[in-house]
């Protein structure tokens, strides 16, 4: 769990980048949970998270995030939106409206063709798709500023091993599990969490 009060858009950029570094380095799936106050990474087994973050400090963030976004659902959806605005995919054809599913299928075929022809990701619609995700949905400029200030020593990065999450981590965990925890189980989850917290003193 990373406590980072930089806002959701910055935290999502950082979370995806760290998760991608871990996934490539450790060869395992990594789940991310993001809020305005931090982010959490979920994985099986032990992972050297701080070492992965240090590796991220030595990489180009934009390039890392573009690699992390490759073949993801968010990239596929955003590409459809951008391709539709560029009139490469038509919502209506000869008076017949195409379903969203059919539009998405056409977009996927088009995206695969573009990526095969342009491995540098310079095709205008694909380039705009990445820009829209990194600059509108996320805040890559803010994330780059955070990493730069960590490198310069203006922001310190401290890691601790704890069997019980901190009280500030509760919101991050609940947000990440909100689709899995039923409303009636939420109170029981909170009670169990606070019992663990109090037992550790």
Brief synopsis:
By secondary structure, this protein is mainly alpha-helical. The chain contains 9 helices and 5 strands.
Please compute the radius of gyration using only Cα atoms.
Answer: 20 Å
Q: How many DSSP H or I helices?
A: 9
Strand content of the residues, in percent? 5-15%
Tally of strands: 5
Low-confidence spans: pLDDT under 50, at least 5 residues?
none
How far apart are the first and last residues' alpha carbons, in Å?
20 Å
Q: How would you sum up the global shape?
A: globular
Report on the architecture of this protein.
This protein is mainly alpha-helical. Among the domains are: 69 residues, no CATH class; 40 residues. The protein has nine helices and five strands, in the order E-H-E-E-H-H-H-E-E-H-H-H-H-H. Helix 1 crosses helix 2 and helix 1 packs across helix 7. The longest helix is centred in the N-terminal third of the chain and has 19 residues.
């Amino acid at each position: 769990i990373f406590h980072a009060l930089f806002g959701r858009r910055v935290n999502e950029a950082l979370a995806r980048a760290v998760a991608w570094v871990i996934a490539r380095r450790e060869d395992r799936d990594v789940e991310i949970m993001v809020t305005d106050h931090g982010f959490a990474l979920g994985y099986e087994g032990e992972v050297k998270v701080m070492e992965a973050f240090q590796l991220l400090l030595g990489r180009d963030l934009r390039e890392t995030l573009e690699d992390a976004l490759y073949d993801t659902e968010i990239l596929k959806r955003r590409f459809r939106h951008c391709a539709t605005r560029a009139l490469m995919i038509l919502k209506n054809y000869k008076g017949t409206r195409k379903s969203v599913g059919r539009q998405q299928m056409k977009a996927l075929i088009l995206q695969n063709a573009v990526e095969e022809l342009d491995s540098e990701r310079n095709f205008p619609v694909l380039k705009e798709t990445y820009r829209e995700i990194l600059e509108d949905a996320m805040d890559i400029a803010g994330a780059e500023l955070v990493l730069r200030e960590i490198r310069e020593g203006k922001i310190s990065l401290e890691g601790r091993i704890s069997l019980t999450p901190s009280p500030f981590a509760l919101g991050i965990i609940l947000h990440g599990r909100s689709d899995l925890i039923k409303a009636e189980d939420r109170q029981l989850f909170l009670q169990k969490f606070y019992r663990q917290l109090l037992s550790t003193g």
